[in-house]
Amino acid sequence: MSTKYFTTPIYYVNDRPHIGHAYTSLATDVMARWARLSGHEVFFLTGTDEHGQKVEKAAQDAGMDPQAFTDRVSQHFRDLAATMGFSNDDFIRTTEPRHKAACQALWEELVRRDEIYLGHYEGWYAVRDEAFYGPDEIEERDGKRFAPTGAPVEWVREPSYFFRLSKWGPWLLDFYRENPDFIAPASRRNEVMRFVEGGLQDLSISRTSFTWGVPVPGDAAHVMYVWLDALTNYITAAGYPDTAAERWRFWPADVHFVGKDIVRFHAIYWPAFLQAAGLTPPRRVFAHGWWTNEGQKISKSLGNVIDPVRLVEEYGLDPVRYFLLREVPFGNDGDFSRAALIGRLNGELADTLGNLANRTLSLIQRNCGGVLPEAAGAGPGDEELLAGLASLPERVDGLIGRQEFHLALEAILAEARAANGYITLQAPWALKKTDPVRMAVVLRHLHSALRVFATVLQPFMPGTMAAMLDQLGVPAEGRGLDALARPLPDGTPLPAPAPLFRKVEA
Ligand code: MSP
Hints:
Monomer. It catalyses: tRNA(Met) + L-methionine + ATP = L-methionyl-tRNA(Met) + AMP + diphosphate. The protein contains 17 helices and 18 strands. The chain has helices at residues 19-37, 53-61, 66-83, 97-112, 169-178, 186-197, 226-231, 233-236, 263-276, 308-315, 317-327, 338-367, 382-401, 405-426, 428-434, 436-457, 462-471, and strands spanning 3-12, 41-49, 90-93, 116-126, 131-133, 139-141, 144-146, 154-163, 183-184, 203-204, 206-207, 215-216, 219-224, 255-259, 285-288, 291-293, 296-297, 334-336. It has a six-stranded parallel sheet, with helices on both faces. A four-stranded antiparallel sheet has the order 5-4-8-10, covered by helices on one side. A hairpin with a 2-residue loop joins strand 12 and strand 13 (219-224). Helix 12 packs antiparallel against helix 16. 5'-O-[(L-methionyl)-sulphamoyl]adenosine binds at residues 9-12, 20-21, 23-24, 49, 230-231, 233, 258-259, 261-262, 290-291, 298. 5'-O-[(L-methionyl)-sulphamoyl]adenosine binds next to strand 1, helix 1, helix 7 and strand 14.
């Protein structure tokens, strides 16, 4: 069995989870579920990023000790994973002993290879981004200074260890050219390449002005820069530094899913750290876009943060999962609007998919004695329908492989529309009297169509599709992609159908 390793960013515990966190993890979850459905052995990792100045400050503001604070907020992210139905195999916290050990081992390896030296940092730092900025990147407004991200910056002057990032620039450019799929989408790849072509500075990788971090081995005055600490989580969970560990077979990761704001850390620093330490870089970094809320930037100060838990309470889990990946091309920015959500749920889930299932299964109940009819002979329109269905799993596989989730859903929906066209044209309800043999054939084909849709939609809507497969009489061992090649036996009894999606009032 071939292995696949997918990761989400680890989330800062300075705040409660919001729609952006749910979104990155959802995409990763669908990817992981699809790979399992295809027969791969999958490791899906998520977790929380608990060190650094930003988290330390949030703990101070809450009047709490940082460990107690991170214990509390980290739990919200585990709860979110349960609410959203994420199928992660591990949940890493950077305050765990296994992670401290991995960070320190990586540091020592970099020291051994002369990739780290002690120096002095003087420059701008944005706590909100946990990032250093060059003087040319800083903007001044009303006497205050800001990073290009809008985060306020402060002047930092302290002793610091540096990673020799500058020397890795040419190697990185070669690496991007030899691995054209390493950064996706292409717009992000270009952005990263322009940045690296502009020349890289050595990177400050330790801080001395606060203590909430992993201590630098042999120099306790320093804690590691939070991004070096955070990125290392991806190898900690795979067993590093024990490269004989059972889990190490999953490295290198197949896809690191990230938001567009953190692509530089993943596509520049991370492969450079790994290569410098003699480890293999990940295969791909996919950067998705950002959500706005009804046309507005999402921010705490505007009070328009979208709480994924409330959304699920209101509309149900699977409709929310479907909408988030259906509405916006993965990689683009997108707008969250209730009208769009309701439009998709009613039009695509309830009217197109739900209706098709309900009509087909009710007719089988009523007219075929509740058992799967036999498909004897062929009629007009059958071939087109069956050809579209036969190629669907492979097309979806290609699209999900490129993280084009919206196109995968569009392809499935197009076949569901075709199946609705087929049922209208064939009118099996009218065939009962005129041609019952043909009626059975039509219903059998529609059943096959529904089985394909339910199978390929499992990663997107696991609960509802399990219910649909139950109604279709598909046994648990018949739900993988490979099982589609094995038709259910004629005469399989089907349980009474029940509606799968409910319409929502606008
Ligand atoms: N801790 C770092 C990641 C370290 S990974 C080694 C971090 N954490 S975060 O909690 O701030 O952000 C996590 C993810 O949420 C990012 O991928 C970010 O892009 C995403 N989002 C935050 N707001 C978002 C939207 N409004 N829309 C979509 N995603 C957004 O960065």
